[in-house]
Design a protein that fits this description.
Layout lengths: L2 H12 L5 H9 L4 E2 L4 E2 L3 H5 L5 E2 L5 H13 L4 E5 L3 H8 L4 E4 L4 E5 L8 E8 L5 H13 L2 E6 L8 H4 L2 H5 L3 E6 L5 H6 L6 E5 L11 H8 L6 E3 L5 H12 L2
Helix pairs in contact: 4-5, 6-11
Length: 249
């Protein structure tokens, strides 16, 4: 929807030719822009409160750049890109302002958002150092949307006193994201310590019988602790997005 179409809808409301409710529905369900290789949903922010996020894996650097340019041209101040390759980062950064975190493969094109008073507190904990790339994807996503994030890294059950030492931080969290591979026990332990929602993120970290994160996924799904929900394997973005939604309620 361009400015002229929007003005036409508002003019009809003003003249009594369309109800405000019908106008709201039309604005929310307006079509996307078809770039041939991608259909950009410019009205996702109207429907869901947050603009479309670009999943970078599997896209060429040219495709990523074109989508970002279109979104910025349609009024987005900043665009979040997940699983962004190093090649895409180099290509896009030569054409647009771009923040890039190589560890999590998160890119933020346009303005890097700054919040004077980030909301609440999300604690993101990892079982080990090897889980940090997924945890950082969650942390940077939550921070992008305005949440205050505290990182507790390498506090897994093999040295559980490290986690207990941060019990005060866990107790004051509005949401905890527990990121772990191997057997995925961290989520259950955290779930038994806090009175807030726990989002468990299984990672593909582990030896052969870990089955690429399936063992951690099944352990987390079968957690005996109440209040634990589970996202997909290595889905740091999904965990960070959901944690922000809960945190800002």
């Amino acid at each position: 929807m361009d400015k002229r179409e929007l003005e036409s809808i508002l003019d009809k409301v003003a003249k009594g030719e369309m109800t405000a409710q019908d106008a709201a529905v039309k604005i929310k369900t307006e079509p996307y822009e078809d770039l041939g290789f991608a259909k950009i949903d410019y009205h996702r922010g109207v429907r869901q409160g947050a603009a479309e996020v670009i999943y970078g894996a599997g896209k060429t650097k040219e495709q990523v750049c074109s989508i970002v340019q279109s979104m910025l041209a349609h009024g987005e101040k900043s665009v979040l890109i997940t699983r962004m390759s190093k090649d895409a980062y180099v290509y896009v950064s030569e054409r647009l302002p771009l923040f890039y975190d190589e560890l999590s493969k998160i890119g933020i094109a346009g303005e890097k958002r700054k919040y004077e008073n980030p909301a609440g507190k999300i604690v993101i904990a990892t079982g080990g150092t090897s889980d940090i790339p997924v945890a950082e994807e969650a942390a940077l996503t939550a921070e992008f949307y305005g949440s205050n994030v505290l990182r507790l890294y390498d506090v897994g059950v093999s040295g559980i006193h490290r986690l207990f030492d941060r019990a005060d931080d866990l107790a004051t969290a509005r949401v905890v994201v527990a990121v772990a591979g191997m057997e995925g026990a961290l989520a259950s332990v955290v779930g038994g310590m806090v009175d807030c929602p726990v989002i468990a993120v299984p990672t593909s970290v582990g030896y052969g019988a870990n089955f690429g994160g399936v063992s951690a996924l099944l352990s987390m799904l079968n957690s005996c602790a109440s209040g634990v929900s589970v996202v997909n394997i290595d889905n740091g973005f999904g965990a960070g997005y959901l944690a922000n939604m809960i945190n800002r309620i």
